[in-house]
Amino acid sequence: MRPQFALIPVLLLSACATPRMVRYDEPVPTLPSNWSEPLPAAAGVADVTDLKTWWRGFKDPLLDRLVDQALVNNLDLKVAAQRLIVARAERDALSSTLKPRIGISANSLQQQTSRRVEWPRGIGFTDTQSVQLEASWEIDLFGRLRQSVEAADAELGVAEEDRRSVLLSLLAEIATNYVELRSAQERLDIAERNVDRLKATFDTLTRLQRAGLASGSSVAQARAEWQSALAQLPLWRGRIARHSHAIGVLTGGFPGDLGQEFERTPHILPSAPALPVSVPSQVLRDRPDVRGAERRIAAATARQNVAVADLFRAFVSRSPWVPQQAASARSSPQPAPSGVLRQPVARRCSTMVSARLVSALPRQSRRPSGCNMNRPSASPSGMLRMR
């Protein structure tokens, strides 16, 4: 049996032992088509346009302005946006590996040696410039580069969903703190009116006691109720300050920036909007954490396929080209020995096609005795290196 035919069973057995790539299919969750409770008669399918600006359903101009300010100045949202930009740049960098790459480099060298040295004989002053052009292309035979790009696409989707999650949390926190703030302001107004009413009752019973028409126990009870209601006022003021400070930080400012503005505006609790109702599957599709988890699974699957592709050989074709060097000499220089340009070796097993043209320095105007240096001729060379 010929040697080349004897390798066929070995290749077949090695192919059986090699792990296979996993094909990723987007999971489809099994969900009920309707909710467990019956929907109202006026409920319909969710309107995506209305859900994107759901906070405008409160019909509160101040809340709308706070949300617009937070979308521009919130620091967490800016950080998430920068991470998204980084993920897009990494994806573009990986996708560029699928195409041939061309590079160019230039070098300038100046040397000066004394011509009075006996050995090696000095050459005076030389000025050499060189330019190198290199083109390379990796043949994606086993899909390693394609799977890397798919992993980068999935990571980009994760960054996008993380940004949406931060955005959704930001909008929810602003709306929640705003509603809690207005609610605390209304309760403070009610508590202040209650304090005034209890104070009036206490004053009335005090006058009645002086006239002999009320007992001392009723006056003491009225005083205790008035003091108890009065002690509740700092609690509501503290809640108002806490929600006001939270909104100030969420909008990208300082805690005390919006306190006076909240006091000037009417203390009216906004009414809840009539949000559209959707099916369970639509609710899950609208959640950025669920979509981000799906993208993480896709990225992990693609990285697994990249690891499988790394078990095979990679083929990189490189072709460096060095034009003839340009050199100038002064003070009757002597020729320096021509250097050899070494071709770089690929990181993996690679097929390398190289063409090199190396020329000697300019011919010397005076050749010293006892020194025999011939001008080498340019010769292209090619090699195949396997790791």
3D structure, described in words:
This protein has 387 residues and is of the alpha+beta class. It has helices at residues 3-17, 48-52, 61-73, 75-95, 144-210, 216-231, 233-250, 259-264, 280-285, 288-309; strands at residues 101-113, 124-139, 315-321, 326-330. Strands 1, 2, 3 and 4 form a 4-stranded antiparallel β-sheet that branches. Helix 5 (144-210) packs antiparallel against helix 6 and helix 5 (144-210) runs antiparallel to helix 10. The longest helix has 67 residues, at 144-210. It starts with a helix and ends in a 57-residue tail after the last strand. The model is unreliable at 42-49 and 325-387 (pLDDT under 50).
What integer is the average pLDDT? 77
Count of extended strands: 4
Poorly predicted sequence stretches spanning 5 or more consecutive residues: 42-49, 325-387
Q: Structural class, from secondary structure content? A: alpha+beta
**What is the ordering of alpha helices and beta strands?**
HHHHEEHHHHHHEE
Helix content: 40-55%
Overall geometry: elongated
What's the helix and strand layout?
Blueprint: H1 3-17, H2 48-52, H3 61-73, H4 75-95, E1 101-113, E2 124-139, H5 144-210, H6 216-231, H7 233-250, H8 259-264, H9 280-285, H10 288-309, E3 315-321, E4 326-330
Antiparallel strand pairs: 1-2, 2-3, 2-4
Helix pairs in contact: 3-5, 4-5, 5-6, 5-7, 5-10
Short description:
The protein contains ten helices and four strands.
